[in-house]
Amino acid sequence: MIPHVFGVILSILLGLCLGSFLNVCIYRLPEGKSIVSPPSHCPGCGTRLHFYDNIPVISYLILGGKCRHCSCRISWRYPAIETLAASISFLLFIRYGLTYQYLLLLVFLLALVVVSFIDLEHQIIPDSISIPGTIAGLAASFLLPHNSIIDSLIGAAAGGLGLFAVAYLYHAATGRAGMGGGDIKLLAMIGAWMGWKALPMIVFLSSLSGALIGVLYLSFSRKGMRARIPFGPFLSLGTIIYLFFGKNIERFYVSLLY
User: How far apart are CA 185 and CA 129, in angstroms?
Assistant: First the structure.
């Protein structure tokens, strides 16, 4: 009992700390800045943050979402991402315990979080995440029981080439770009980590969530049909849903057929 409780607390704390690092990546990678230096600072006045002003979630709440020095408003995104990272870490620990599977999948899912928020804000998916992430997925296949190196290789190829074919056909039919190269490389990365067998369900879940949320967004957005909705966050969401609930969804679907 005690070791399990300790592990839960450790997983949450690890997620919070990594979430703070994710915020740095999301803010700096699109601008081509180093994620190592300079140390964390206020985006408004540039003052370097002390450790007690940089405690995940807690510092944000104590400071009321403002910089201690200039009272610049700090985005709600910072504690939200820290909380999201902690939640993912907690759920993975509950499923896998303190194992290499937990650690590897935690790195993968948190990379998807970074990709999603960068894509939402800048509508780009950095190659610095998707390309090394694909290589890491191929390497991780030697350790993850749900994925073999063959499944991983086929998944990376099918994910990238499959989405490239869809994008090419869409452009040929409409004369407009439907998906960017970042989405293609992201699905190759997802295929490397999850294997080719998971891709159909992941694409289905991504498309379904994208369609539902897209309709709501277009309904309330003043841009109407001119609005461009990035697909990367939905690929990430579909992957996370599949990882935690995919088998249950597949069993439910099969039960409807028989």
Answer: 10
Rounded Cα distance between 46 and 120, Å, is 25
In this structure, the number of other CB atoms found within 10 A of the CB of residue 155 comes to 30
The three-state DSSP-derived secondary structure of 134-178 is: HHHHHHHCCCCCCCCHHHHHHHHHHHHHHHHHHHHHHHHHHCCCC
Are 120 and 172 within 8 A, CB to CB? no
- Rounded CA separation 125/185 (Å): 9
pTM of the model: 0.90
Distance, CA of 53 to CA of 63 (rounded, Å) = 8
pLDDT tens-place string over residues 212-237:
888 887 777 666 555 678 899 999 99
Q: Give the other-Cβ count within 10 Å of 172's Cβ.
A: 8
